[in-house]
Design goal:
Chain B: This is WD40 repeat-like protein. The complex is a heterodimer. Chain A is of the alpha+beta class. Chain A contains 25 helices and 21 strands. Chain A has four domains: 33 residues, no CATH class; 171 residues, Cysteine proteinases (Cathepsin B, Chain A), CATH 3.90.70.10; 189 residues, Cathepsin B, Chain A (Alpha-Beta Complex); 192 residues, no CATH class. In chain A, 55% of the residues are buried. Chain B has a single domain, classed as Methylamine Dehydrogenase, Chain H (7 Propeller). The chains are: A alpha+beta, B mainly beta.
Chain lengths: 762, 588
């Protein structure tokens, strides 16, 4: 089906290997001009399996832009996307078929549990095989047969080509249109829910061969409307409310599913104990891990001077706005002291009765993704309705929080702005939502329903608001980052801008040396870079510890560098999430043991980084697919490695693995494949990533992160409830960790179970 | 006191609103007696004197005002900057330091100071004498060791030597009669020469760039709202300008203007002559194509000025030299992408280069991100540079070396200013903070963060009349429309860390001030920053790269006064001896 579309409109599927940037595409003279997005993606390499290079618009079914803008924002949050597609497990491509063709195998979710060998046979032409250049796979596309023949791209002369309406129509016509009117929940072993629909959409987008297209989220909306009366009307809805509902739904669905699983399958999970488990299904708290932070409200009774504290969790922060302020100051205001008096007195337990009190709220635990809701819709008494505030509120690209408690962990965490949901319109009851999102390596893009268009970074600043400015930011998504990543990005952006300036001059006919592509500078102020580079950056994001360094965090990036293999990242980050809380504690412990070795490792790491960078530079000119082959080769070796290790697993695996300092790994891993490139180039790449993905997690843990392996075990054991037997064979340190892990986990569970609507509203 | 921008562009709430309001002349408003526009500070009360609206120029006719109803239009407008002014006093002495440490006691007659919040008169006299003593102290400090840029380079010295002492060279082209497509229109005052003649040599001229216009005002005149001249440019927006302090005289002013297109104009308003530098549309190739974000004459130089470009380049031009296509002289330097963190100053053309026939005189690159502001230290040795990536650099521009590099708490830095004695630097940025950095003998460390603005800080300025060696006053303005005053003293900045942490949460508490010797204090702050380097390049010797200080370890300083002075985000601030002037964004 897609290939049909490809033929139909050659310009629209540059993703197909034949139309790669290497050879210029022969265009039908009648075909419309390439859209800016097509131009942007013109030089793209093979499609990546993690979905980071998919740019789909979403169809608007009448005022469903609130939904589109939020889903887009979530999709481009790397950890969120990874979690969604990996929970409860990443579905094999067969499962993505529409239900009639895909009889749901009740065992499907468990197939990959015990035997890796069996599964690897299953998926030679898994989704990932699409990334191999010559996969003219006969696999059915996920597009629906009906209603898919796009209307021929009619160009009404009266239609202004620059109008968004025209562009949207074009996008819809160009297709491919993914009609998400089916659901695969059974394939995931879950019951139908908003989460499964979201997963359906994400999976379908990632699996699709085209880089661009339009998603019709029919089913998603159907379920949303079925279950929530509020969204049933075709009226304009509040995007923030929707975000909140969606996050809470996802939490609920996920938790419900895992509870169910725990009660159902003691035996199933016992099979996981051999360490090759899929732990993500156990890790139900990932939404919490990502979006949830903790607010502490301190209330000081003015009568008895007694201070009481109460913790509350939040998934996003709603802040009041002031004219001519900044997000920083709104957040500070949020935490300012508030007097509880008159009608709003505080019931003091200490002195009993209502007393005047001072209350202030601070952030105790910082979320990894900070969703900031700017309260632009305010109820005005005299008008008896909501009104939109057009205040000018500036938001920086980077942010730290001032309103943290003194004992907060990593209180100076650095956030970067990655998505802005913009409301356009004069009031709360009508208008339009779009989102502007920073994608991993394509810079900022504007997502306006069906239309996706690259925009300049400065464009993001157009939505501060102000009198008479109808389009203003409504929800801001900040994700954690590191100072290093920030500096790197800044540098790249500056370079790209400079290059752009010089190329525009070129167009004007002034001769100037064209810089080679070696810099890898993209059109949109971004460095496409090699996959490994990107992922290194992104992996860093998994580790919250940002610039003002807390000693504990020192080696966090070291551990993570191992994941600079693109294919690995997805599984990897899942692991990270699963173990995040735990890891923090571990780190503190390990810190002591390692301090001595650390300095040396640091040096080694530095040197290796230099070497790796050097190598990457040299490799930059190579085509992406070559690199990919290399990486796959490394994965194969990883798999082999893993198998070898498994043989010895029964004996002393964990201890030996642990004795190798993780520091030494990171750069050998990416370096390896590159060295092997030449030998492996000829090797058959159809040894699919899909199959390898079964190994990924476990092989990872064995090679670089023995801790995780141990922990995964723990987790499954936790579930079984027979930890004692298993843990006796372990070393002492591990035992401690197990305990901690368990503690952590139980805390987490308690936490997430106890809460439903966790947005904090002021 | 305020130079106001035009009224909001979109008066109605209509979809997209009508086009910009077109104003052709400036207006002035004087507040009534019972106005609430006053500030009470320790030294007296500032009253609002004048409120001048500078006319926003209409878009050039060649650019049809594109009315795009789509608020999501992805076309990016040219970079713009808020209204910036520079003040010139044609005081009789021409020594290099006059402008920095000038003694304008003659100005203390309140009525002569227009357009400013003014202290109550009885305060003024005492302040005047105070100021005198301070400046005397400073000038002994800064005077003798004034080095010149590029000294020791014969090829450059030759060029400088040509300059006749008696007669200032004027640019070639007459701007009024010019048929350049760059300059759209020049509107000189009808009786320009008469007004120039009437100008009090101690009075203040002001230049203001508003969108695509540059206005020249006489703030001492009765009709100060009437510009002496207004130059309208065709497409380019003037982003910054500077007046040469060395060459100014009764009948000569050297103004350089930097534009959004990257062009630079050397403009001599008295004779209405101009010359173009870094012509971006020229066939010979130009030096740098990115917008000029800040521009300053090199201290003590008649010809050389430094332009900061949006791609992170710092370029020294000679106002009288021809442009030539710029090719980096030592291409062996790796492109900055490979070493984003070490922040080393890349010298693409050194001032000591042998070939000095054409512009640029020198060309440095700090990083790839946009430089937002530059400032020369009062002793004329150092240059402070702040940029969009949040970096703050101190460069020894005479020896072309980076001395210091550190970063904002988060977000870009927007403005920078040296204390009058050169011992402190303050920066303001997108983290809503004003940061005070100590700078002593090449060592620089963060001493305090000043929290008080509700939005980005767009300008900071020391009030040199209220700074002595021990305590300092500076002001800042920001996007929150407010003017804030800050006082700090050397002792108080180096409070023990524990105290500062406690202080962090209670802005209102009084400040315990354990006195310390300033010299030692600096070293402690330096240690502090070294101890938590995030940076791999700590071992680099010539540039000290600092990480970001955690907020728990940095003292926070509250403002002594905060006042909302306008309805529009402010963009500029200056202290005169007995007044303050602010300006706000002249059109977005």
């Amino acid at each position: 089906m897609t290939s049909f579309f490809g033929r139909f409109k050659p310009g629209t599927s540059p993703a197909s290997p034949a139309t790669n940037a290497v050879q210029p595409v022969k265009r039908d003279p009648n075909a419309p001009q390439p859209t800016p997005l097509e131009k942007l993606l013109g030089d793209a390499g093979p499609i990546r399996p993690d979905g980071s290079d998919k740019f789909f618009g979403y169809e608007n079914f009448g005022s469903t832009c609130y939904c589109n803008s939020i889903i887009q924002s979530l999709y481009y949050s790397v950890p969120f996307r990874e979690q969604v597609i990996n929970f409860p497990c990443r579905s094999p491509p067969e499962a993505l078929e529409r239900p009639p063709t895909a009889p749901t195998d009740p065992l499907k979710i468990n197939t990959d549990v015990p035997a890796n060998g069996a599964n690897s046979a299953l998926s030679p032409k898994g989704r990932n095989s699409m990334s191999s250049p010559n996969a003219a796979s006969p696999r059915k596309s996920t597009t629906t047969p009906g209603g898919l023949i796009p209307p021929p791209p009619m160009q009404k002369p009266e239609d202004n080509k620059d109008s968004p309406e025209y562009k949207k129509k074009q996008a819809l016509a160009a297709g491919p249109v993914l009609a998400m009117d089916y659901e695969n929940s059974k394939a995931y072993g879950m019951s139908e829910s908003l989460f499964t629909c979201l997963k359906d959409i994400f999976e379908a987008v990632i699996a699709h061969k085209s880089r661009m297209g339009v998603v019709s989220p029919n089913k998603f909306l159907e379920i949303l409307r079925r279950e929530n009366e509020m969204f049933r009307t075709p009226m304009h809805q509040d995007a923030h409310e929707f975000l909140n509902l969606l996050l809470n739904e996802v939490v609920d669905n996920v938790e419900k599913f895992s509870k169910q699983r725990i009660t159902e399958g003691g035996e199933e999970t016992s099979a996981l104990a051999n360490g090759t488990s899929l732990p993500a299904s156990n890790n139900t708290g990932w939404v919490h891990e990502l979006f949830e932070g903790t607010l502490t409200s301190e209330t000081r009774c003015l009568t008895c001077e007694n201070t009481s504290q109460r913790d509350e969790a939040f998934l996003d922060l709603s802040v009041d706005l002031e004219q001519h302020s900044s997000v920083t100051s709104c957040l500070r205001k949020f935490s300012e002291e508030e007097m509880l008096c008159e009608r709003n007195k505080f019931h003091c337990d200490n002195c009993g009765g209502l007393q005047e009190a001072e209350k202030r709220m601070k952030i105790k635990r910082l979320p990894r993704i900070l969703a900031l809701h700017l309260k632009r819709f305010k109820y005005t008494e005299d008008l008896q309705r909501l009104q939109k505030l057009f205040h000018r509120v500036v938001y920086p690209y980077y942010l730290r929080l001032f309103n943290t408690t003194d004992d907060a962990e990593d209180p100076d965490r650095l956030y970067e702005l990655y998505a802005v949901v913009v409301h356009i319109g004069g009031g709360p009851y009508h208008g339009h939502y779009v989102s502007i999102i920073k994608t991993q390596d394509r810079g900022w893009l504007l997502f306006d329903d069906e239309m996706v268009e690259p925009v300049d970074k400065a464009y993001v600043r157009n939505f501060f608001g102000g009198e008479g400015v109808l389009a203003c930011a409504y929800v801001l998504f900040y994700q954690e980052t590191t100072l290093e990543a920030m500096q790197k990005e800044m540098e790249a952006e500056g370079l790209a801008a400079a290059q752009q300036a010089s190329t525009t001059m070129n167009e004007e006919g002034i001769p100037q040396p064209v810089k080679s592509n070696a810099n890898g500078v993209g059109v949109n102020g971004h460095v496409p870079g090699t996959p490994s580079l990107d992922l290194e950056e992104f992996v860093n994001l998994n580790h919250a510890h940002t610039a003002p360094p807390v000693p504990v965090s020192e080696h966090a990036p070291l551990e993570s560098t191992l994941t600079s293999l693109p294919g690995l990242s997805s599984k990897k980050s899942r692991t990270n999430l699963g173990a995040l809380g735990r890891k923090e504690k571990e780190k503190k412990k390990e810190e002591k043991e390692r301090k001595a070795a650390e300095k040396e490792a640091e040096k080694m790491k530095k040197q290796k980084r230099k070497e790796a960078e050097q190598r990457l530079k040299e490799e930059a000119k190579r085509a992406d697919d070559e690199l990919r082959k290399a990486l796959e080769a490394s994965r194969q070796s990883a798999a082999m490695d893993e198998e070898r290790r498994k043989a010895t697993a029964a004996t002393a695996t964990t201890t030996t693995a642990e004795s190798t300092p993780p520091h030494s790994h990171p750069h050998t891993a990416p370096a390896d494949p590159l060295e092997k490139v030449k030998e492996k180039e000829k090797e058959n790449t159809t040894f699919g990533m899909g199959s390898l993905s079964r190994f990924r997690h476990s092989s990872m843990s064995l090679r670089g992160k023995p801790k995780f392996w141990a922990k995964d075990k723990d987790k499954s054991e936790d579930k079984e409830g027979n930890t004692d037997a298993a843990s006796t064979s372990r070393t002492e340190t591990e035992d401690e960790k197990t305990e901690e892990g368990r503690k952590n986990k139980s805390e987490k569970n308690r936490f997430s179970l106890g809460r439903k609507k966790s947005t904090f509203r002021l | 006191m305020f130079v106001l921008p035009p009224p909001p562009r979109y008066p109605g709430g209509g979809y997209g609103g009508p086009g910009p309001v077109i104003e052709t002349s400036n207006t002035i408003a004087r507040p009534t007696e019972d106005s609430t526009d006053h500030l009470v500070v320790g030294e007296g009360t500032y009253l609002l004197r004048d409120d001048i609206h500078l006319a926003t120029p209409p878009p050039h006719p060649s650019e049809a005002p594109v009315h795009n109803p789509n608020p999501l239009a992805t076309t990016i407008g040219a970079p713009t900057a808020g209204t910036k002014l520079s003040l010139v006093v044609l005081s009789p002495t021409h020594s290099a330091n006059t402008r920095l440490y000038r003694l304008d006691t003659a100005n203390s007659t309140p009525s002569q100071l227009p357009q400013s919040i003014q202290e109550s008169p009885h305060e003024t006299t005492s302040q005047g004498s105070d100021a005198g003593s301070h400046s005397a102290a400073y000038s002994t400090r800064g005077g003798p060791d004034a080095h010149t840029f590029g000294e020791g380079n014969p090829s450059l010295a030759l060029a400088n030597g040509k300059e006749g002492k008696d007669k200032r060279r004027k640019p070639k082209n007459n701007i009024v009669k010019s048929n350049s497509s760059f300059v759209s229109r020049v509107i000189p005052h009808d009786s320009l020469n008469k007004r120039i003649g009437e100008h009090d040599p101690n009075g203040i001229y002001a230049f203001a760039n508003v969108n695509r216009a540059l206005q020249w005002l006489d703030l001492t005149s009765e009709k100060k709202e009437d510009q002496l001249a207004k130059v309208l440019f065709t497409k380019a927006h003037a982003l910054c300008h500077d007046v040469n302090a060395v060459t100014k005289s009764i009948n000569h002013l050297d103004v350089v203007i930097g534009f959004s297109t990257g062009d630079i104009i050397w403009y001599e308003p008295m004779s209405q002559k101009y010359a173009r530098i870094n012509k971006t549309a020229s066939k010979n190739g130009s030096i740098n194509l990115t917008p000029v974000t800040d521009i300053h004459w090199l201290p003590n130089s008649e010809n050389l000025f430094l332009a900061a470009h949006a791609d992170g380049s710092l370029v020294v031009y000679d106002k009288e030299k021809e442009d030539a296509e710029f090719v980096p002289e030592n291409p062996t330097d790796p492109p900055p992408s490979n070493n984003p963190q070490n922040g080393k100053l890349q010298i693409l053309k050194s001032v000591h280069s042998r070939t000095q026939k054409t512009n640029p005189v020198s060309y440095w690159k700090t990083s790839s991100s946009r430089i937002n502001a530059i400032s020369f230290s009062p002793d004329n040795r150092h240059l402070a540079v702040v940029s969009e990536d949040g970096s703050f650099r101190i460069i020894d521009y005479l020896s072309e070396k980076l001395l210091h590099l550190s970063y904002s708490f988060y977000g870009g830095l927007l403005c920078v200013c040296w204390s009058p004695d050169g011992r402190f630097v303050v920066t303001g940025g997108q983290d809503d903070l004003v940061c005070i950095w100590s700078f002593d003998a090449g060592e620089c460390g963060l001493v305090a963060r000043c929290q008080g603005h509700n939005s980005w800080v767009s300008a900071v300025q020391f009030d040199k009349w209220r700074c002595d060696g021990r305590s300092y006053r500076f002001g800042s303005v920001g996007e929150d429309c407010r003017l804030l005053f800050w006082d700090f003293s050397v002792g108080m900045l180096h409070r023990p860390r524990a105290a500062s942490v406690r202080h962090r949460n209670s802005v209102a508490s009084t400040l315990p001030l354990p006195r310390r010797v300033p010299g030692n204090a600096d070293s402690s702050s330096r240690l502090r920053s070294n101890s938590n380097l995030t940076n791999a390049n700590a071992e680099e010797e010539d540039a000290v790269v600092h990480g970001v200080e955690p907020k728990a370890r940095t003292p926070f300083l509250p403002p002594v006064l905060a006042k909302k002075v306008d309805d529009h985000p402010l963009s500029w601030l200056a202290f005169t001896e007995d007044g303050i002037m602010t300006a706000c964004n002249g059109g977005k």
